[in-house]
Amino acid sequence: MRRLHCLLAAALMLPVLALAEAGDDPLGSPAWLDLKPSFVGNARVVFDDRVKVSGPKIAEDSLNVPVGVRIEGLPDIERVLVVADLNPITKVLEFSPRGALPALYFRMKLQQASPIRALALTKDGIWHAGGIWIDAAGGGCTAPSIGRSNANWTATLNTVQAQAWENDQQSRLKLKIMHPMDTGLAPGIPAFYIEKLSLRDARGHEWMMLKTFEPVSENPVFSFDFVGRTPPGLVLSGHDNNGNLIHAKVAK
Amino acid sequence: MKLRTALLLLVFWLPLGALAESFDYRLSPYRVADDSYVFIGKTEDFTPANGGNIVNTAFIVTRDGVVVIDTGSTRRYGEQMRQAIAKVTPKPIIKVFNTHHHPDHFLGNQAFKDVPILALPATIAGEQAEGDAFANNVYRMAGDWALGTEPFPANQAVQPGHMTVGGHDLEIIGWGGHTAADMVIFDHTTGVLFAADLVFYNRAATTPHAVLANWFASLDRIQKIPFKVMVPGHGLPVMDNRAIDQTRNYLHWLDRTLRDAARNGAEMTEVLARPIPAEFSEIALVASEYSRSIAHLYRSYEAETLAPASH
Ligand SMILES: [Zn+2]
User: Are B153 and B131 in contact (CB under 8 A)?
Assistant: First the structure.
């Protein structure tokens, strides 16, 4: 069974790579050829199954669609873009896994069915792409955030909750930041979202850098993975597009 | 968006043709006890092929007239239900109950506008608040079967207690867990228990408004009722506890799986990828409902694992 599986995979690999060289898109997205230059310019893009994107087949809650990006066995990654081709705002986030593993889990707003693709840039200037389609009922981006209807949202703005799970081999840090993450697409509510997050250890060394955009869900939750235990004294810092600062100790 | 609509049309155009012209649910009442009938829905999700005939609705023919329990997913369903009841009895319909505010249980209300429609207060509030969104959603999923379907919320609040209707001693019970208010009706005269969506049988339980701890408490209380026949909200009527046990076993597994995953730091997409135990493989739609339940419930389990970080 397993062998059959591998044979099938091998048979499928060849045409996929060939398509990639021809500039076509294995996700069959109608928008990708138009979008591609704005994200990667003229650089070469290869579709690479080491770039794994996970998520539900159908978005049950279009305001909180879980997405995981995990890259295994691809060295020298400089940064990773996550793009939702058919969302009204296509760029979801970007991360640079300095010392953390090249993996990130988050939730996003999805207005309609769309490819969700991750593009990893390696030091040689090549983009490695992977992705999935997620179907959606709609309403994710033009609906006002729920926190906005709660008068107390200003009291908790940018406060952080966190937890680490670790052993000697690996660790995970999960954190939640209270923020409306307004897209600016709901009538009368301007865009208001976290723009930048960084994880640094006690000595100031950066382990993860994250740029986030409007489609990231309200009160965002992120998970980061590390080899071995979490770096000592890890601090989360960052800001939103109104200049409000985020600062919290998130690990021992 | 346009492109997708075109694709959907291409996909559904061929198989729909013949069915769609008549929009006939072919409702045929199944007699479960004296005076007591059930229209048994398919154990499926809304599709353009089933038109939303995915729920059990019921009626009791009393001395003074007919009591209807839930009205189905669309205006057409409610109308056809009424025609099918008229073939069983010439008596008028005198009361309609909505067991809870989910679309498949009350969007047929339009066909019963001339009759008092009774529901628990929280159910009426839910029908008023979410009815429009539900009607749009049914139209999106079931297609033209739902044409002309508008939410018509229940118009009479009912409190739990006994009510004698045409010689039938009906006990109206207001519990919860599947939604904020789930009505169960026990007909002491016939021994038929209309459990609505607190009990699913061979169709996976749905959780968009669920609070599992309350649901477990309701199942324990249902089990104490000395029913002869139980009509679940979805799936075949039964004469013993098998449907209660199946619903409880599945929801216990769901609760345990999500709690353990959250405590271990799992992410939602990782929980989605977990296998479903073989013991549940016979239950219709178990994979898709498990996936939906993660969206409904996982974040609340996860919230319990996160602690405030200091500045
Ligand atoms: Zn229900």
Answer: yes
